[in-house]
Design goal:
Structural class: mainly beta
Order of helices and strands: EEEEEEEEEEE
Radius of gyration: 13 Å
Number of helices: 0
Length: 126
């Protein structure tokens, strides 16, 4: 059974850090582009970051550049999102997603992604 499970969310104060993990089961991540999306209450889902299958291409949305770092460990079937200098506007449910990619790139759009996790809540508040 194909499954993505996120973990690592929680509540932090502004300026704090969290590390999200996404564990894949039922398939091997090494042929998949992986991405993190987020959705805040009342807002549309948006792409936060993505990483190509070989990690040769990485995308970050402008608002998280310099603060978030995406990485992957294909041997362990894991993808990470290190989030530093968190801001209240980072508050959202964060989802990981997988796209069976034949490209050396990854997409910031949700369209190509076939598998999705259930999400993990990140709350940044003082």
């Amino acid at each position: 059974q194909v499954q993505l499970v996120e973990s690592g969310g929680g509540s932090v104060q502004p300026g704090g850090s969290l590390r999200l993990s996404c564990a894949a089961s039922g398939f091997s991540l090494d042929r998949y582009a992986m991405a993190w999306f987020r959705q805040a209450p009342g807002k549309e889902r948006e792409g936060v970051s993505c990483i190509s299958p070989s990690a040769s291409y990485i995308y970050y949305r402008d608002s998280v550049k310099g603060r978030f770092t995406i990485s992957r460990d294909n041997a362990k079937n894991l993808v990470y999102l290190q989030m530093n200098s968190l801001k209240p506007e980072d508050t959202a449910i964060y989802y990981c997603a997988a796209d069976r990619s034949v490209s050396a790139y990854c997409s910031s759009s949700s369209k190509p992604y076939e598998y999705w996790g259930q999400g993990t809540q990140v709350t940044v508040s003082s």
